[in-house]
Design a protein that fits this description.
The complex is a heterodimer of chains A (116) and B (112).
Chain A (H helix, E strand, L loop, with lengths): L4 E3 L2 E4 L5 E6 L6 E7 L5 E8 L2 E4 L8 E4 L6 E5 L8 E8 L10 E2 L3 E5 L1
Chain B lengths: L3 E2 L4 E5 L4 E7 L4 E9 L6 E7 L4 E4 L2 E6 L4 E6 L8 E9 L6 E2 L3 E6 L1
Classes of the chains: A mainly beta (116), B mainly beta (112).
């Protein structure tokens, strides 16, 4: 998967706890995307970030979810006060430029969140 | 509102034959289309893409066809191999946004 690193691969949280998912994009990639896949569904867009900026967060739930991509370090997807419905696979992807410029988006192997 | 639809949840094909996976979309603003392949517990892997200015793109065993008037695209794999067994997602993007909208996937099984 072209070097997009996600961790943890598996995370178990009790209801009400916080989940933090980290994503290190391919070296040199400045565009990061987060997608969520619920069981038996396709991937749903959540948020698109460039370094230090949120470009499009139209797929993010209005509450409890936040994302950042700081100047230094990985991108973080943060879910506060998790509920059972947050259980899903969360995929991070990166690209060197925009999709419209013909750049390919490379996905990481995903972080599987289970809320008990 | 499912803007990208893959109406066949599964497909079974014999090794060596052609696999045809279909995808329909509703948003006429989409102008760039991609196919991804996904194995269980792994992330999607890019296969092939096509811009709306083309109606066909080929890469080895994989060919994508785009019919803009029908808002339909298809992925042909020939010859199919057992290693092709996976879930295939089509995805679309429009010129005024930089996010991919995915279909629900088709599970392809290639048997000997």
């Amino acid at each position: 998967n072209a070097g997009v690193m996600q961790n943890p691969r598996h995370l178990v949280r009790r209801r009400g706890q916080e989940a933090r998912l980290r994503c290190s994009p391919v070296k040199g990639h400045s565009h990061v995307y987060w997608y969520r896949q619920l069981p038996e569904e396709g991937l749903k867009f959540m948020v698109y970030l460039q370094k230090e900026n949120i470009i499009d967060e139209s797929g993010m739930p209005k509450e409890r979810f936040s994302a950042e991509f700081p100047k230094e370090g990985p991108s973080i997807l943060r879910i506060q006060q998790v509920v059972r419905g947050d259980s899903a696979a969360y995929f991070c992807a990166s690209s060197p430029g925009t999709i419209q410029a013909g750049n390919t988006i490379y996905f990481g192997e995903g972080s599987w969140l289970t809320v008990v | 509102d499912q803007q990208v639809k893959q109406n066949s949840p599964s497909l079974s094909v014999q090794e060596g034959r052609i696999s045809i996976l279909n995808c329909d979309y509703t948003n006429s603003m989409f102008d760039y289309f991609l196919w991804y392949k996904k194995y269980p517990a792994e992330g999607p892997t890019f296969l092939i893409s096509i811009s709306s200015i083309k109606d066909k793109n080929e890469d080895g065993r994989f060919t994508v066809f785009l019919n803009k008037s029908a808002k339909h695209l298809s992925l042909h794999i020939v010859p199919s191999q057992p290693g092709d067994s996976a879930v295939y997602f089509c995805a679309a993007s429009s010129y005024n946004t930089d996010k991919l909208i995915f279909g629900t996937g088709t599970r392809l099984q290639v048997f000997p």
